[in-house]
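Quick question: what would this complex look like in 3D?
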Amino acid sequence: MSLKVIQPGLSTSIQDLGRPGYFHLGIPIGGAMDRFAMRVANMLVGNPEGAAGLEVVFMGPELLFESDALVAVTGATLPAKVDGVVQDGWTAFAVKAGQTLSFDFLKSGARAYIAISGGIDTPTALGSRSTYPIGALGGIEGRNIGAGDVIPLGEADMIEPGLNVPAELRRLPGTPAELRVLPGLYWHRLTPAAQQGFFDDDWTVALEADRMGYRFKGGEPLEFVDREQPFGAGADPSNIVDGCYSYGSIQVPGGLEPIVLHRDAVSGGGYFTLGAIISADMDLIGQLQPHTPVKFRKVDMNEAIEARAERKKMLAAVRAHLG
Amino acid sequence: MKTRYTYGGDEHIYVEIDDEMSLDAFFKSLSMSNAVRDANIKGVTEICPANASFQVRFDPDVIAPDEMMKKVQELEHKAGDAEKRLKTRIIEIPVYYQDPWTHETLMRFRERHQDPSGTDLDYAARINGFDSVDGFIEAHHSQPWFVSMVGFVAGLPFLYQLVEREKQLQVPKYLRPRTDTPKLTVGYGGCFSCVYSVRGAGGYQMFGVTPMPIFDPEQKQSYLKDFMVFFKPGDIVKWKPIDRAEYDRILAEVEADTYVPRIAEVDFDLEAFNADMPGTNAKLMEALNVA
């Protein structure tokens, strides 16, 4: 029960729902950037929602199946092909032993999720199979997949192909993408004009956009409230005494380019953060390509909690639909 | 000290004990985060203590954010009454200052530095008023350091020097962070020293390198058998300057998985330290010599 990597794609990693519990030591939660897509892919092939699959960035891998399996691809629109025959996205399809799974060009989004019946069965590290390359944890030898790797699969209860998630239960960012922000953390370090400017400005996703963080450019430099820097912080007005970073928090080194910290984020550091992306919009960030226009929208805690409930309702609807 | 409470999105509560660094702020942050852990509040998923602040991650589906906030705030008085005393350990960490590898790296990133004409150590010595790099290096390793936070990347310790504030060394971070730092670089930013546990990006000034691994997912070193991360907040570190020959000798032991760092159990009492810093430090370092 395994598959062989013919060609790994641009940056394909084994991910599940991550390893909570070690952030206080600098080891991030990790796991799928778009958790909704990962969960749905697993549901389609009859896996537990937290089973390990592949996270594909921009360009798909080529995989040779050494055993029969059920496969589903969700998230970004990256058409899958079995021995060259295109398959529907967000739909379970069969791949027989000896067949090759490959991909066409990316149509929209940034990250696709491949779930395989039985799930990927690599060893766990601190309770998760998620790849964290900096700490050499999870995945295969702590790294992304490479040509020639043999990926072990778990035992699967074979279910029929054909399960499908309708378009209204899928989620991709619009244009411009809207990311909702709850101001807080070191928000008070910004002048009122800079606070307003952050939400008024038009931003685009920069090239530095990966599992650790997404950088944004195009807005005006942020102005800080004057103060004498506190002891131990460092001289720049954007410096603080090194503290914890929240997932989704927005740091702005030098007040220049905001960076949203994501699943493989550093756990702390010495740059001020102005608030955080609400939990309901974290999945969306992983689907943003470089140069995508983005607006940040200010929300309050009530809106953040309502949006979170809506996301849960959407996931419940998928579960109900798939029975 | 003025405690400030705020939210980090809808899943985190961030508590800044003080906006400036001090051991008093550290101890209050540590005891408060311990109090949150001991309270076993339903919905808490992670507690991350830092230098002068801490963060609580929670599941807003289990507990409403304002209720969570109230529960954390209610624990502040408990932390205030806690004793500022720790049973901990002092560890001797060998450092090869002015090594060839950090030198190569700092030359490669010179255009991101405040002073491209010299090295990070030249710059740090000058802005701290030292006549020579040697004098600055001496100040860096002559007194012990206190691990006030673990994080950034896997197992990286932030260290705060156990001296009077007027003797604290301070250096800014790089103007723009580097994209590369050699593994086990001894760095410096703000008032904190650090050891980069893994190779990667970094903004701290680079002073040297240690041969002693402090993070190992394979847990091959004897002192990493219990857990892959070596440091804990509250640990005390004494840097020991070494030359190339000793660096190579220790590295050979590390590669043979036989290296044993010098470690001694000690008590650290903040009030005793504040009353007599040189005396407290001498006693801490003496424990290392006995071990």
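Answer marked as accepted. Chain A has four helices and 20 strands.
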